[in-house]
Specification:
23% helix, Rossmann fold, single chain, 477 residues, globular, 4-stranded antiparallel sheet
Length: 477
Amino acid sequence: MHRSTLLFFVLALLLPSTYLHADYEPNVVVITLRAQSPTFLQWKLAHRSGTLDVLTKIVGTHTTEPYILDATLTAVSRANARKNYDLKQRTTDRAIARIVVIRYGAAIDPMLLARKLSSLPDVETAEPLAQHQLVELPNDPDIDRQYHLGLIQTFDAWDKLPADSTIVVGIVDTGIDTAHTDLGANVWHNSGEMGLDGNNNDRRSNGIDDDANGFVDDWFGWDFVGANGTATDNSPVPGHLHGTHVGGIVAAVINNATGGTGVGKNIRVMAVKVGRDDPNSVSVGRTSDGILYAAAMGASIINCSFGSASPSLAETAVIEEATSLGSLVVAAAGNDGLDMAFFPAAYPQVLSVAATDAEDEIAFFSNTHNTVDVCAPGVAIYSTTPNNTYQYLDGTSMASPVAAAVAAMVRLKNPTYTSAETKATVMSTCDNIDSANAVFLGRYGIGRVNALSAVSATDPKWVTVSQSTFVDSDGDT
């Protein structure tokens, strides 16, 4: 018998029916309208708002809003222009601009409504709107601080990096305390909103979109949700402490005789706030806008320590757009302690990160799944929290920025690498931890990240087999 194997270098998007306990927002569906369809043209003419005739007939009273904000589309378009992409196909008619969020009052299950809407000729895709949440757990300080730095050989990795270069990591999270004494110096600033304008006014606060990216005075990031989930502003200061902790894991200041240190060296963190101002809220919103903003503004790596069990075609389009802009999205695999896919981590372009402890054992809370790519320390991780404080936290939320910082150092060492090459390098240089995790084999990725091995790698070879087909060409078995 002769067998041939077909190798695919990109994972196929798995069907939603294969995932567990999906969490959706009630009375909300998301549709992608077909380009140049009558319904899309109606919505576009109404400035991507209002009601749609075809929906009124099905669901009655409803409102619509863009899945991606106008300002974010502007930022993405400018980023594409800088990369000399063909803007003819990247105008307001492209996929991310045709995604509509529909809110309705009728007592209809979002999944059932999405199935109905998907059959309409003007609708390309339809799905419920996933509810993403943060994936950290509080922990008392019961082990030595920052064991993870030595475990992944961070300090030796620093010696391999160019001294005169920096790289930006987008922290799409609950905001960052930019005044923290152990983090503020490594917060990214938008050069297009700094200095004085023609009237000698400070561009940081002159009320003008000086760099014409769609956001006014976004000199150190953007808040996409504000206090009520919809009020955007230019102050991504934290509500929940989660984002400051994540940012510190990546880039707490080195050699300042204060607190701890980040995994990465020569890294700036971009504050992209998608959590509400409420310090107790673990829900996040407008995450797709946050990802696209980070990509458009030059973040080579984008960390997403949030998610849910709900896959989304709309979110897939956003990840693809961010990847096309050169960004590698790194995301947490989730804290359900189950064998399950978690999104956005499970999308094929994303580096999915599970959590391990100080002994390289899979953390009891960490999800595992065949979509996980790597592991990183995520138990009792000591890092910055607001108001010049520090805290130990558990979670794949903590593991993800460890891996994100390693990916950033790989890109810093190899600035011409694509996101796929960066991801492959991080994966192919992991330490083998199979002996400590025999029960989870095949479900926690390649191994635990190693910063020194990753930045030392030269042209690593990597092939992903996402599907294999065996062809029995002569009829025997």
